[in-house]
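Priority: medium. Attachment 1 of 2:
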């Protein structure tokens, strides 16, 4: 299979994963999903894409950790951070980090809703960066290749699923349009009958 798109797909995926580290409201797993589909449709090499995704994930996670490490206390007082990372969630995460430490960092990679709070809290608690990087990297070595290659490998089945979904969507839309038309016809017929009765009176 030829890859004629140059570095653009890799730069795009890496940039989005990097922006996720700055709080871009895009689910990281969806970026990995899209990266896998790029490889499946021939826009990129799957093994290079896996490496790019891994690097993007690690840089993004490290940014969250370092932001927490250097600016955590001040940022926790701001309204935007309180909204993104509610105090009750941060308190729970800090408690878990104190109790289980490294296990929480490893597990957070597999729990999308807790990644940012855990990594930010780990930084604000001044956990050694090398410890964070090791356990997060270990988890990423499992999750990133698994997600990307699984989606890539089963791409043909995804085509079928997407086709079925489209058919179902068209069917649902057609049914809704049919029901609306029937209701409009019924309302028009009832209105006509009322006018006929009023005319006779």
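Attachment 2 of 2:
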């Amino acid at each position: 299979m030829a890859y004629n798109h140059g570095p653009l797909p890799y730069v795009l995926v890496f940039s989005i994963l990097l922006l996720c580290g700055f709080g871009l409201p895009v689910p990281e797993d969806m970026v990995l999903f899209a990266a896998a589909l790029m490889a499946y449709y021939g826009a990129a090499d799957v093994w290079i894409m896996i490496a790019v995704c891994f690097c993007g994930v690690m840089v993004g996670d490290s940014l969250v950790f370092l932001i927490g490490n250097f600016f955590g206390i001040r940022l926790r007082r701001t309204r935007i951070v309180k909204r993104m990372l509610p105090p009750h969630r941060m308190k729970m995460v800090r408690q878990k980090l104190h109790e289980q430490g490294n296990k929480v960092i490893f597990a957070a990679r597999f729990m999308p809703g807790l990644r940012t709070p855990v990594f930010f809290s780990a930084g604000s608690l001044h956990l050694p960066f090398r410890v964070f990087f090791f356990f997060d990297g270990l988890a990423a070595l499992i999750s990133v290749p698994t997600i990307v290659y699984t989606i890539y490998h089963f791409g043909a089945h995804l085509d079928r699923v997407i086709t079925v979904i489209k058919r179902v969507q068209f069917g649902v839309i057609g049914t809704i349009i049919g029901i609306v038309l029937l209701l409009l016809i019924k309302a028009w017929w009832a209105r006509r009958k009322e006018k006929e009765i009023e005319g006779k009176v």
